[in-house]
Design goal:
Distance between the termini: 14 Å
Strand order of the largest sheet: 3-2-1-4
Mean pLDDT: 77
Number of strands: 6
Strand content: 25-35%
Oligomer: single chain
Number of helices: 2
Shape: elongated
Low-confidence stretches: 69-77
């Protein structure tokens, strides 16, 4: 099974792809999506969406594994709640639909 892990952010989105088969895990690729400073949030989100879509098309993951986020109030937010706060339900569903999740 191919898995895409995402460490979300607006300036930097870390990502990694692993392959898991018969108890063996091997890394396939990793990197970061970066957006320029002083760029409008809408433009940053479009850049991130474009690059994530490219990654999904290239590696065709079966699962999406988001990192849990820690906000300033020491509350843990799941990636799902983070995306909902940041970009709303429609964009979040579009991302999860892209990976079949």
């Amino acid at each position: 099974m191919r898995i895409l892990g995402i460490d979300p952010g607006l300036a930097i989105v870390g990502w990694g792809v692993i392959e898991s088969a018969r108890g063996n895990i091997r890394p396939l690729a990793y990197g970061a999506i970066t957006t320029p400073a002083h760029t409008d949030i809408e433009a940053r989100l479009l850049m991130i969406e474009r690059d994530l879509t490219d990654l999904i098309e290239k590696y065709q993951p079966r699962k999406l594994l988001p990192k849990r986020l820690h906000n300033q109030l020491n509350n843990f937010l799941t990636f799902d709640r983070y995306l909902t706060k940041l970009i709303g339900d429609v964009a979040k569903e579009k991302l999860f639909d892209a990976v079949g999740g």
